[in-house]
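Fill in residues.
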């Protein structure tokens, strides 16, 4: 079975080891220990990837935890998908507003440059 060190995950995901330790403190990750060394499993790596994806989507860490914890192998996980869609909808609306603002700003700028 594959194992990962904190420095390997830090490099792979371009985050600091402090960030990974923070996620551990919050209970989002729970690596095994060998003495003082943290040993991350493929499942830990996947959780970290999903946490970071949630962050990029604008989810809070609590929302990400709730959605990730809903996963049940071998099931359809429809409820998990619905929860994810519901959680990212406000961020989508916000991004669409920002796109509209940028588009309007570009029009105004082009008009000012043409005058």
């Amino acid at each position: 079975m594959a194992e990962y060190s904190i420095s390997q995950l830090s490099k792979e995901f371009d985050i600091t080891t402090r960030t990974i330790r923070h996620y551990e403190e919050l209970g989002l990750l729970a690596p095994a220990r060998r003495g003082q060394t943290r040993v991350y499993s493929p499942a830990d790596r996947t959780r970290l990837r999903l946490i970071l994806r949630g962050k990029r989507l604008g989810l809070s860490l609590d929302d990400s935890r709730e959605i990730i914890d809903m996963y049940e192998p071998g099931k359809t996980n429809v409820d998990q998908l619905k929860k994810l869609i519901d959680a990212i909808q406000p961020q989508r609306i916000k991004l669409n507003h920002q796109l509209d603002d940028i588009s309007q700003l570009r029009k105004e700028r082009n008009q000012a440059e043409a005058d």
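Residues 12 and 75 are 30 Å apart (CA to CA).
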